[in-house]
Amino acid sequence: MMQKKLSRRHFLKSTALATAGFYAMGSKACSPRSSAPEHLGIQLYSLRDDMKKAPANTLKAVAEMGYREVEAYGFNEGKLFGYAYPEFGALLKDNGLSMPSTHAGVSLADYNKADDDISDTVKKWIDAAPALGLKYLISPSINADEWSRMDQVVKFYAAMGRYCQKAGVRFGHHNHEYEYQQKAPDGRLLIEWILQEVDPALMSMQMDLCWVVYAENDPVDWFRKYPGRWELCHAKDLMAPDRRETAIVGEGIVDFKTIFKNRENAGLQYFIVELEHYKNSPLEGVETARKNLLHMF
Q1: Full residue range of the structural domain in which residue 160 is found
Q2: Same domain as 202, residue 161
Q3: Smallest Cα–Cα separation from 234: which of 211, 207, 260, 216?
Q4: With b meaning 16 or more CB within 10 Å and e meaning fewer, what string describes 189-215?
Q5: Are 21 and 92 part of one and the same domain?
Q6: Is there a single domain that holds both residue 155 and residue 23?
Q7: Cβ contacts of residue 23 below 8 Å, gap of 6+?
Q8: Could you tell me whether strands 204-208 and 170-174 are parallel, antiparallel, or unpaired per DSSP bridges?
Q9: Are residues 134 and 19 in the same domain?
Q10: pLDDT tens digit string along 99-147?
């Protein structure tokens, strides 16, 4: 009888210790491990009206949401949102923000075919980029009248890449749907021209996930075809397959979870939220988008 009591007492004690050990270990080993990316930012075009009216207040609101990086647009205009470049850089710093990338519109008008070089005007704003902490200068589009001259576009892009490299930044291209739909005279898609004809050392790719899906393409397929080429992406959702309308991240049809499972193969490092259409206010939209996006990794 005494032996049974001792056995039972020993059993209860052992069980209690094991259970305590399990939960102590589980609180560390079994807690969800965050795989959120280091670089998660917001494309300020998402807040274009707010940035026109009150850029300082808008950047403060963005920082309070938890964003630490922004991507600008209109870098080739000499100012950003009414501020000289150094002033805008100081405004970012005051809000604990950095700006790794910016969109800067360029075209074949900025290319000197005879010298295989870019214009002095473009060189000046490229030279201004490093002081702002910029790492990427990204062409946001290709003009429609240049689609038939992709042989010139890729030479221009290579010249942009060479000069950016000397200046200490990296040139890039951001897509819309047409690169995955329109073909050059030789039958290749515009995106194929860019990927195949421009040295990867001279140019990065920023995949806009929304427009790739809208063009009825699978981003993961392109990751497999051209691994390591996609250093940045616009995390933008699509409302419906047949509607050229964006949705808040996580509320549309883009399968971010599957896409991001393949991020290492893609080479993705920078994830930039963008929203062009809204249900409520733009600020509410980008705050919800950020929260939703963090659940996609």
Answers
A1: 35-293
A2: yes
A3: 207
A4: bbbbbbbeebeeebbbbbbbbbbbbbb
A5: no
A6: no
A7: none
A8: parallel
A9: no
A10: 999 999 999 999 999 999 999 999 999 999 999 999 999 999 999 999 9
Q: Above 70 in pLDDT, residue 9?
A: no
**CATH number of the domain to which 102 belongs:** 3.20.20.150
- 269 and 154 housed in the same domain: yes
Q: Write phi, then psi, for 192 (nearest 5 degrees).
A: -70, -40
- What is the end-to-end Cα distance of the chain in Å, rounded? 57
pLDDT tens-digit profile of 222-268? 999 999 999 999 999 999 999 999 999 999 999 999 999 999 999 99
At 278, the amino acid letter reads: Y
Q: How far apart (Å, rounded) are the C-alpha atoms in residues 232 and 81? A: 23
For residues 136 and 75, the answer to whether their CB atoms sit within 8 Å is no
Largest CA distance in the chain: 103
